[in-house]
Amino acid sequence: MYMHLEQCPRHLLVCEKSNFTNEKSRHGIHVQSHYFNYQVNMLIPECAVLPSELNALVNSFEKYYLVKNVPVYELVEQQFIDRFVKKGSVYALSYNTQIDQDNTVALLPTGTLILSVDKDTYEELGLEGKSSQYSHKAVMRYVITVDLKSLVPGTAKNKRVMWALKEKLLVKCDFLIMWNSPGDEDFSLSTHFEKYQCKEHAPAVSTKVLRDLPYPVIQSCDLRGNPEKSCDASEFMEWLGAVTSEIECNNEASNFLSTFCCPEPSSVMEKAYLCTVTGFLLPENICKLLEQLCHYFDEPKFAQWTSLTVHGFADSPVSWGSAEHGFHKGGENFYNFVVFKNRDYWLQMAVGSHDGCPP
Amino acid sequence: MACHERMEDDSGKYERIVHKNGSSYHYLKISLEFEEDTSIRLNSAQFKQLIISSLKQLFGEIGAALPFDVLQFEENTLSAVLRVYNRDLVKVWSALTLLGSYQSEMCAFRVQQVSPFLLALCGNSRT
């Protein structure tokens, strides 16, 4: 009778294992193609003070700008394209827009502008797009994609896009924006957007040392776990979630409140260093952090592994690459690296129901 | 030991597993709000009992017997993290939604985030 009540939305978890020294390892590509990152959590067992190299990296995440009330046509202006899009990587994401109800805009570093708009906006704009993959029977959301690098000034297409966004319907958003340029340039985003309210923000860093922490035993060679010897990747990930949210893992089976326990087999670590960086984070910075985490084991350490979790923006129109992302019950799109002493790594990538399978 | 033997061969070997609906649980971040400033205080046990009674109201004895965990509870903000089985998600969520009062004071549960991954709850860009 209640069968339909027992269904829940689909979710996917991809677990991979490989080695950083493996030529075909795709860890860098996975990090680089996850464009819009909101938070990074780093957990280092048996560590109370962050090594100086890691500390320097954590504090050197690029600053980003929050520009208020910008019309979207500003991103299509030839001057913007010439100054920024063609001379580096621009990351821009509309801020405080919810992808399941508002119009959401993103500019990928590849120069692709993505507008995820509701049906009314789509019809009024009159630009060519595709219906969202995650529509119901009646399509209520459309995705418009414009390749800015291939827009030629003066062509009919260019004029049409400008006209639609400027005169037909003025779509305005607050934007989180960042520009990763190859060298010193003549222009900065703050001067380009000076007529709008443009404020620079630095990612927020918070750290914590956790004491006497039960942890699941894992072995790099055994992604699937072994009942007596080690835990599997998804059990580890659940435990990691509990630790990051500071959830008690020492409950008994008869406890009224919670029966949640650290997965078995387990051990106890004396201390662990948890570091969180929150903001609009560049994939390049995360790559550097991951690289440095591998070098953590260059000197002898008590820890067997370290972990690095990266959360994407719940309301980004893409997750990895140009794969469409949406928000259903949640907008989760995150990945976690477990870096082992012997340079092996586990990579766990998770998405909710409005997302394709991670790469 | 078996693993060590395999490490010789398997170390660094590429392997990929895709879990579809692999998690048996869903996690909910919720908070309880009272309509007016109230002197009512709840501890964690009373908080869980309140949820159980709302399940009982809606689904009867069977509802009251649904297993779920209060993984975390903050008394000051009356916010909590729940863990429920996937099959019970709709029932727990609907019971939370339909609860209207505690000790004759108007109140409501706000569901802030829902995810099949506990790890997703610490990095919510929607606040």
From TrEMBL, chain A:
GO CC, alphabetical: multimeric ribonuclease P complex; ribonuclease MRP complex
Pfam families named in the record: Ribonuc_P_40
GO biological process: endonucleolytic cleavage in ITS1 to separate SSU-rRNA from 5.8S rRNA and LSU-rRNA from tricistronic rRNA transcript (SSU-rRNA, 5.8S rRNA, LSU-rRNA); tRNA 5'-leader removal
Listed InterPro entries: RNase_P_Rpp40
Domain of life, source organism: Eukaryota
Gene Ontology molecular function terms on file: ribonuclease MRP activity; ribonuclease P activity
Protein's recorded name: Ribonuclease P/MRP subunit p40
Gene that encodes it: RPP40
Automatic annotation (TrEMBL), chain B:
GO annotation, biological process: tRNA 5'-leader removal
Protein's name in the database: Ribonuclease P/MRP 14 subunit
Residue intervals of the Ribonucleases P/MRP subunit Pop8-like domain: 25-97
Single Gene Ontology MF annotation: ribonuclease P RNA binding
Keyword Cytoplasm: no
InterPro entries membership: Pop8-like_dom, Rnp2-like_sf
GO terms for cellular component: multimeric ribonuclease P complex; nucleolus
UniProt KW Isomerase keyword: no
Pfam families per UniProt: Pop8 (PF20976)
Keywords: tRNA processing
